[in-house]
């Protein structure tokens, strides 16, 4: 097991390069099943979640070559001959469920173990299943598995009760080779969905409106291979922007799309962080006096739940009262108790957290309870007095490429230790 040790107090400077988005690459790898031809992902992030979903595809006989030097993933799904991925792998990664839409679409049958709950909430899959049903699949759930069969998928109008990212992606992928037109209403609008639609279209699909609240998919007969370079990771960029603010530093974050970062830029600017965008880079100046703010997480273009923990860490040492309301996941405040161990004054009341900023957090051993919680604790450690030891680092490795090396490059005193 690894832990990350942070000696707080250093000011950061210089620039950091952002990797491609994990949450774009995972559905794109799943989508490659649809074509049955070779697909190439360039500049892919070399992350644990990417390795796990690749193993899930291998478990149904796909051939995947990951070149960690050139960050290239070559996927050949022509030989898929199993319709039940390894349940041990599926349980490791909820996003494994994203292969369901492509598998039903291409083979007309699929069986997968239920993903179950996870640290941040119960995360049901009812909306995915309703969508597959509406397209004509026969879906049954029992004995811990979901099974779907469909002689033929037929386009339909699907209204999502909630703009679920995963359900929008899964239904979109199932629909690309369905007969006729599918319309997904109240679809999630996250940039990663637009990226997936772009990849599907480069394989020959006809998806219109990916990344808006109405996605139209005109079914095509078959798809070809494609080469794709995913979008930048807006959450990794946001995490480094908070790193600048929490350490009262000025840094340059390279590899960003300003549009995707608008909700994060707006909130940091409201606090008094000065952000200047220049093309695909931005300068974040957190050297001024920062103010407390209120945040409510919302589906995109609202403030992302994946940045909630990092902002809680930052607000913990900003004088005054801030309130964070988490509306997406019902159990995504577990980092608060770890931050309290570092001296933070946070009170949780249902879906809201009231944060009274203190002068300075103090380092201690804290546990990373999920991916973003772990990143947030590292951020707290950068600003805290003394040494912070973040354990259960495997959560962080699921979604951040070399986080400690990137922070070292900015001048942080941070390193990894095996224990
Ligand atoms: N939901 C349902 N029924 C469904 C699907 C979702 O009730 O069938 C609920 C969930 O329980 C949750 C809410 O809808 O309360 C949002 O879930 P959504 O489906 O939008 O999330 P997801 O697709 O499971 C993706 C990201 C998450 C990110 C969320 C929200 C990927 C691989 N994961 O999850 O990323 O938090 O969207 O933006 O894209 C992370 O990167 O740390 C992470 C957790």
TrEMBL record:
<dbReference type="GO" id="GO:0071555">
    <property type="term" value="P:cell wall organization"/>
</dbReference>
<comment type="function">
    <text>Cell wall formation. Adds enolpyruvyl to UDP-N-acetylglucosamine.</text>
</comment>
<dbReference type="GO" id="GO:0019277">
    <property type="term" value="P:UDP-N-acetylgalactosamine biosynthetic process"/>
</dbReference>
<feature type="active site" description="Proton donor">
    <location>
        <position position="118"/>
    </location>
</feature>
<dbReference type="InterPro" id="IPR001986">
    <property type="entry name" value="Enolpyruvate_Tfrase_dom"/>
</dbReference>
<comment type="pathway">
    <text>Cell wall biogenesis; peptidoglycan biosynthesis.</text>
</comment>
<keyword id="KW-0961">Cell wall biogenesis/degradation</keyword>
<dbReference type="InterPro" id="IPR050068">
    <property type="entry name" value="MurA_subfamily"/>
</dbReference>
<dbReference type="GO" id="GO:0005737">
    <property type="term" value="C:cytoplasm"/>
</dbReference>
<keyword id="KW-0131">Cell cycle</keyword>
<feature type="modified residue" description="2-(S-cysteinyl)pyruvic acid O-phosphothioketal">
    <location>
        <position position="118"/>
    </location>
</feature>
<dbReference type="Pfam" id="PF00275">
    <property type="entry name" value="EPSP_synthase"/>
</dbReference>
<keyword id="KW-0132">Cell division</keyword>
<feature type="domain" description="Enolpyruvate transferase">
    <location>
        <begin position="6"/>
        <end position="407"/>
    </location>
</feature>
<dbReference type="InterPro" id="IPR036968">
    <property type="entry name" value="Enolpyruvate_Tfrase_sf"/>
</dbReference>
<feature type="binding site">
    <location>
        <position position="328"/>
    </location>
    <ligand>
        <name>UDP-N-acetyl-alpha-D-glucosamine</name>
    </ligand>
</feature>
<keyword id="KW-0808">Transferase</keyword>
<dbReference type="GO" id="GO:0008760">
    <property type="term" value="F:UDP-N-acetylglucosamine 1-carboxyvinyltransferase activity"/>
</dbReference>
<feature type="binding site">
    <location>
        <begin position="22"/>
        <end position="23"/>
    </location>
    <ligand>
        <name>phosphoenolpyruvate</name>
    </ligand>
</feature>
<protein>
    <recommendedName>
        <fullName>UDP-N-acetylglucosamine 1-carboxyvinyltransferase</fullName>
        <ecNumber>2.5.1.7</ecNumber>
    </recommendedName>
</protein>
<keyword id="KW-0133">Cell shape</keyword>
<dbReference type="InterPro" id="IPR005750">
    <property type="entry name" value="UDP_GlcNAc_COvinyl_MurA"/>
</dbReference>
<feature type="binding site">
    <location>
        <position position="94"/>
    </location>
    <ligand>
        <name>UDP-N-acetyl-alpha-D-glucosamine</name>
    </ligand>
</feature>
<comment type="similarity">
    <text>Belongs to the EPSP synthase family. MurA subfamily.</text>
</comment>
<keyword id="KW-0573">Peptidoglycan synthesis</keyword>
<keyword id="KW-0670">Pyruvate</keyword>
<dbReference type="GO" id="GO:0008360">
    <property type="term" value="P:regulation of cell shape"/>
</dbReference>
<dbReference type="GO" id="GO:0009252">
    <property type="term" value="P:peptidoglycan biosynthetic process"/>
</dbReference>
<feature type="binding site">
    <location>
        <begin position="123"/>
        <end position="127"/>
    </location>
    <ligand>
        <name>UDP-N-acetyl-alpha-D-glucosamine</name>
    </ligand>
</feature>
<keyword id="KW-0963">Cytoplasm</keyword>
<feature type="binding site">
    <location>
        <position position="306"/>
    </location>
    <ligand>
        <name>UDP-N-acetyl-alpha-D-glucosamine</name>
    </ligand>
</feature>
<dbReference type="GO" id="GO:0051301">
    <property type="term" value="P:cell division"/>
</dbReference>
<dbReference type="InterPro" id="IPR013792">
    <property type="entry name" value="RNA3'P_cycl/enolpyr_Trfase_a/b"/>
</dbReference>
């Amino acid at each position: 097991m690894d832990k990350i040790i942070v000696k707080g107090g250093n000011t950061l400077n210089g620039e950091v390069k952002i990797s491609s988005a994990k949450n774009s690459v995972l559905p794109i790898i799943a989508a490659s099943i649809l074509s049955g031809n070779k697909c190439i992902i360039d500049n892919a992030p070399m992350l644990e979640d990417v390795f796990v979903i690749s193993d899930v595809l291998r478990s149904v006989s796909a051939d995947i070559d990951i070149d960690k030097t050139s960050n290239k993933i070559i996927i050949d799904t022509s030989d898929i001959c199993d319709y039940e991925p390894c349940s041990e792998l599926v349980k490791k990664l909820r996003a494994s469920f994203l292969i369901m839409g492509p598998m039903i679409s291409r083979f007309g049958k699929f069986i997968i173990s239920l993903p179950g709950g996870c640290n941040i909430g119960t995360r049901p899959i009812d909306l995915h299943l309703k969508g597959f049903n509406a397209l004509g699949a026969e879906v049954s759930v029992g004995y811990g598995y979901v099974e779907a069969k469909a002689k033929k998928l037929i386009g339909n109008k699907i209204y999502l009760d909630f703009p679920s990212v995963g359900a929008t992606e899964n239904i979109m992928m199932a629909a690309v080779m369905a007969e006729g037109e599918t319309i997904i209403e109240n679809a999630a609008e996250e940039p990663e969905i637009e990226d997936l639609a772009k990849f599907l279209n480069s394989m020959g699909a006809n998806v219109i409106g990916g990344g808006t609240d109405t996605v139209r998919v005109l079914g095509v007969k078959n798809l070809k291979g494609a080469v794709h370079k995913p979008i930048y990771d807006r959450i990794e960029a946001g995490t480094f922007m908070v790193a600048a603010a929490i350490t009262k530093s000025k840094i340059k974050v390279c590899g960003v799309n300003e549009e995707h970062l608008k909700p994060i830029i707006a909130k940091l600017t409201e606090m008094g962080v000065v952000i200047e965008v220049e093309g695909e880079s931005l300068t974040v100046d957190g050297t001024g006096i920062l103010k407390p703010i209120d945040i409510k997480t919302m589906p995109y273009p609202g403030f992302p739940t994946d940045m909630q923990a990092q902002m809680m860490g930052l607000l913990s040492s900003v004088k005054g009262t801030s309130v964070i309301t988490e509306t997406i996941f019902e159990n995504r405040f577990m980092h608060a108790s770890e931050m309290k161990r570092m001296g933070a004054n946070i009170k949780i009341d249902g879906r809201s957290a009231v944060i009274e900023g203190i002068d300075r957090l103090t380092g201690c051993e804290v546990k990373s309870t999920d991916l973003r919680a772990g990143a947030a604790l590292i951020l707290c450690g950068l600003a805290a007095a003394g040494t912070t030891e973040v354990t259960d680092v495997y959560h962080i490795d699921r979604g951040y490429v070399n986080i400690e090396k990137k922070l070292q490059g900015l001048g942080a005193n941070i390193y990894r230790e095996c224990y």
